[in-house]
Amino acid sequence: MALSGIEIFKLLPKTNCGDCGVPTCLAFAMSIAAGRAGLDKCPHLSSEARSRLEEASAPPIRPVTIGTGERSVKTGGETVMFRHEKRFENPPPLAFMISDTMNETKIRQQFELFGSLRYERAGNSLKAEMLALKYESGQADKYLSLIENAINNTDAAFILVCSEPAVLEKALEASASLRPLIYAATRDNSGEMVDIARKYNCPLAIKAQNLDELSELAETITASGFKDLVLDSGAQTIKQAFFDQVAIRRSALNKKYRSFGFPTIVFPGEMTKDPLKETVYASILIAKYAGLVVLGKILPETIFPLLVERMNIFTDPQRPLATKEGIYEINGPDENSPVLLTSNFSLTYFLLTGEIESSRVPSYLLVKDTEGLSIMTAWAAGKFSADNISQFIKKCGIEDKITHRKLIIPGYVDFESAGLEEELEGWEILIGPREAAHLPAYLKNWG
Question: In order of start, what are the domains of the chain with their CATH numbers?
């Protein structure tokens, strides 16, 4: 349970030295309670007090890091049931299952496809981050070959899906430096699996047949001091998986039940053989409340919508999703193409680009940084007015790309046209439509 500022203050040294960056220990305690400062800022905190504070102030769902360096992903760390209450912290990594029963050609193709699925949207790079490497052949050499191949030919973080401790140890000898997630400890093998996870310093998934069994297993393992856990309730239907995810999240956050205070892992591909249904199931579980999602097949047509959904859900609601400022070329424009202006509010950007593309008119779209605010909100905040728009036009480089000097501004800020013509000498300011749907007709007759 999160501590109040006064409770934190009682454990601080009370020297008011200011080394933490604030003048008093009480102010520092209040900053910690509000999430604006970390314990590492206080160099005089005793190890006992630090341990007590870290345990007490830890998020209800423990964050777990899988992988190292550029291959690392983070899951868990969540503090709220609903996004609007604050924000969701760590997007669930998406993984694809690769079995060691596949032939070498198929494996190579899967790795190449995995590496090619990279998308840019609203200034964000979207991709699946993980591969679940499954021991299914019964031949340890084939499994080790698959792991080595994955290490050498992908940039993924790994889940080692292997229930045989002897084979798993050999696999970890080759991959422990990449800190893969071990899947999975069960009631029957939990002792051996925990020992292996502790020996190689890797996070461990635990799997049960139901929530009661999962709770008992988690409690037993955490009592031994091992806490880098990921939970699998063993649900085989989307209905049960949905129920389990909500129950685990609610127990951890609302009831402060520590045995469920860990991220979860789900396998939509085990609930259906239909790839479209698998995608729908995955989308449900991304929203409610999976910590890791493992898909059965690598399919470009299914991964892209899931990546976009995940991006939208895990953006901070207090920080609007924004597009990168710059010049966007649509339909292959040339020096005679129209030039349109908009804010970098992502919804506006996507609406405009869609309508411009459908018009088939080669165009330049100038996106000005308004900190993610929509056009009228940005104008009201002084971020989309004649003076700062003109500075952007002069610096963005559009004058080097066109021979004319005509700028189409949104109809909602038509009152800025006179000011823009004063600021932009030699430019003609045209008033565009207020609604994006009217752009195709407007562009066909713009000149």
Answer: 5-57 (1.10.15.40), 64-313 (3.20.20.20), 326-444 (3.40.50.11600)
